[in-house]
Amino acid sequence: MIDCYNIKYYLFEYIDGELNQELRVAITEHLSLCPHCSELHQAYSRLISFCQHCCNLEVPKEIHDELWNFLGKFIEPPSNPKFHHRVTKPRHRSKDR
Q1: Does 96 have pLDDT greater than 90?
Q2: 20 to 30 A Cα–Cα from 91, which one of 32, 52, 60, 71?
Q3: Dihedral sign of CA atoms 16, 18, 22, 27 in order
Q4: Reduced to 3 DSSP states, what percent helix, strand and coil does the chain have, rounded to the nearest 5?
Q5: Mean pLDDT in residue range 3-21
Q6: How wide is the angle at C-alpha 66 spanned by C-alphas 11 and 18, nearest 5°?
Q7: Residue 88: pLDDT band by 50, 70, 90 thresholds?
Q8: Which residue has the higher pLDDT, 36 or 50?
Q9: How much is the pTM?
Q10: 9 or 78, which is more confident?
Q11: Cα 21 to Cα 27, 49, 61, 92, distances in angstroms
């Protein structure tokens, strides 16, 4: 099972349906039991929805990569090595999605 500390690393991919089955099930189970993380999930979902509907701007790949590299300096990898392989640089998203 995934814990509150590690779930924050996967919520965006969870919302986008980009996780493997094992991790998706673990997060779904955790969200059903944890009001705090469930609220965080709802907030992330609303943020994504807002950005998709209101912010129809494409971030250039160079800026996307530079921002991820900057943020990567402040984000610790998950404490559970079982899930460590999923903490990677996210794909640059195109308008087509």
Answers
A1: no
A2: 32
A3: negative
A4: 65, 0, 35
A5: 89
A6: 25
A7: very low
A8: 36
A9: 0.55
A10: 9
A11: 10, 23, 29, 23
Determine the Cα–Cα distance for residues 44 and 12; give it in Å rounded to an integer. Answer: 7
Tokens (6 digits) for 59:
């971030």
Query: Which amino acid is it at 6?
Result: N
What's at 34, amino acid-wise?
Answer: C
Residue type, 53: H
| Measured distance CA(4)–CA(34) in Å, rounded | 8
Angstrom distance (rounded) from CA 79 to CA 35: 21
Helix axes 21-33, 35-54, angle to 10 degrees: 110
Better-scored residue on pLDDT, 56 or 15:
15
Q: Cα(91)–Cα(2) distance, rounded to whole angstroms?
A: 23
